[in-house]
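Exercise 7. Given the components listed, write out the predicted structure of the assembled complex. Treat all entries as one system.
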Amino acid sequence: MNSLFSSMDAKATLKYLNEVQSKLMKGAELLTDIEEIDVGTTLKELIYAEDKLELHHYKPLASKSCGIPIMVTYALVNRAYMLDIQPDRSFIRNLLNMGLDVYMIDWGYPTQADRYLNMDDYINGYINNCVEAVRKHSKSDKVTMMGICQGGTFSGIYAALYPEKVHNLITLVAPFDFATNDALLFNWSKDMDIDALVDAYGVVPGDVMNESYLMLMPFNLNIKKYIDMLEVLEDKDKLINFLRMEKWIFDSPGQAGECLRQFVKDLYQGNKLAKGELKLGDKTVDLGKITMPILNIYASADHLVPPAATKPFNDLVSSKDKTLYEFKGGHIGVFVGSRSQKELAPVISKWLIERDGAAPARAAPVKAKESPKKAAPASAKPAAAKSAAAKAAKAKTMESGKPISAKNIVPKVFSPSFKKSTKK
Amino acid sequence: MENSSDYFDGWIKTQQQAITALRDQALQMQSYFKNSASTADNPFSNWSKAVLDAFPNGDDANLTKGVFNKTLFNTEVLQKLYEFWQPLLKAISDKSIDSASYKNFTDPDKLKQLYDKLFNFDTDALNQLQKQTSQYNDVYRQFSKPWTDAAKTQASNFLQGDFSQSEMTPQAWLQQMQTAYATFEKTTGKILSVPTLGKDREKMALFSKYTKALTTFASRHQEYYQLMQTTGYEGNQAVIKALAEKVEAGEKFEKFDDFFALWINTNEKVFYKLFQSKEFNERRNAMTAAGFNARKLYNEIIEGQLSDLPIARRSEMNEVYKIIYDLRKQVKSLQSQIQDLKTQH
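Answer.
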């Protein structure tokens, strides 16, 4: 706040209070004019619907640079429109601008009628049906799975169960090794009585989940944020952007009880995915069956899904072409931060173009000699975990041959010669 | 150094500016919200109420309204924070305080009020909790009062008796028996007048379980709240320590924002440490588990009360949902099989 309380005398205080009041009045005037907070405005069409779920195909914004369609799977706990929160901060739009063909699942809002949906229904049912719909609509045999947060975990599980349908797998801030206690949610979930929660609610309200998220940084999220809002209160555009984020934060769908029960028990508490013990229906999920190229993006300052939960994924899969990419920022910053707008879409685009069609061999050289299957999750083998963590720390250079940097690839993406050289 | 004349001139000017500013803003307010602001006893709260009332309806408008309400609330928090710390900050600016004197700065009662306000603890829930605890105490008192009275009467009879004799008088025995029976009738004896089997007894047993669950929750909630309160106090001590270090280093705050940032970050760190602790996890889990258990029993009570009415109950709806869920799966499976057959042919 500019010059507020610039000194501690009564005059300055009065001035400050007057400024605050002016801002509040101006802000009130602007706020009463806002009836609708528009989000997710990029043009799209509905191509498939099932129960509460909708699958959309985004209208292209540039000529196609990559033949394999991308299916984006977002987490169940928040709404997917965060990826298209506003026109100038849209992860989806950035991908489209890179010439990528994008589909995205909208999970909708579960009601009590959905309380019995479990992880098997979401992954073997909904996600598989969506993949089929994308294959049919795009006339492509395979898809690129792009999973975000919990959606990344689901996408990884799907890729392990149906590797024949997945050409590439991209995960963003997605947890796979739940043994860590580096983030509060992981710590809290270990001992929580999930049975009592699910039995009490059936479909667990989004507000119950939000209460926990707000407690992760209680002073910043409950006090400072709204004090800081005074700074944008007089600027309508900034104010609407603030409200868009607020809308997204509190627009939390309820969680189908059985799915949440399984996610907490089997993953947060049992770490069964990393241990290779997770069962969905009659199938056991073995991440070692993932052989397609993977791009695992994590955020260095992620307070929701810590790097310790995301990075070991690369050691749990059998893929030879695997890339670990560090985004310097937080969990949400990956999608809406100003830097991410310039950085991530080009990185993903370049990575995909290099692996388009039947050309995975064109991937960056893999220097890691050790078989990925030898590594183990932290909770399964303590000694191996240390080794996995150490490897993960070096993964950018070890697995990609050289660190990926947005700086050295952005100009190349739209270069005709670059496209030509990567499409044979 | 200013002389006293300069000081008062400055003071008068400041007052004039303040009055002018307030008048202008009042006029502005009236022009925006003529109906509600003009008769305001408390202009700010009436103004904010008028603003909130002026918001259109609809989901997004309600969100906007909620956000603005939080901003108003937090602005007030900021001002209270300023008022609370201002004397100390002033002393830092004037360098008229030493680090040792901080120890006497904080008043626990004021601190409690401040933290209740600032941390936005669930005061409604706490009030409700206290109310429920109080109600429970009342019930317990009503139950135990006849026994206490009886004990008093017995004690009185005993004292009135002849201590030289080994036996009490027949009148005293009779009175004692009557008192004991009356007490029994008023309390435990009531159970004899209700059916011993069937739904009513089950309902009573359930209600008793619910009462117990509620008091367990009240107790767990109190423990949790106490932990948060203690940590709030620790946060405050950490802020004071940071301020003391600043004084020792001869530093001062240029603006209140600097202090606000220090206050936020210091408290955030203290609470983060708490949230990572096993004790917090245990208390939070104990509280939520107790709450969910009470909620579950409450649902059962409601189910019991509604059992004779021609409306669907929660458990019945859950059965329906389960049937819908199973049917959906069957239909999808059959549709898939049909599709496969079509493809084959």
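Discussion: The first helix of chain B runs from residue 4 to 32. Chain B has two domains: 55-311, 315-345.
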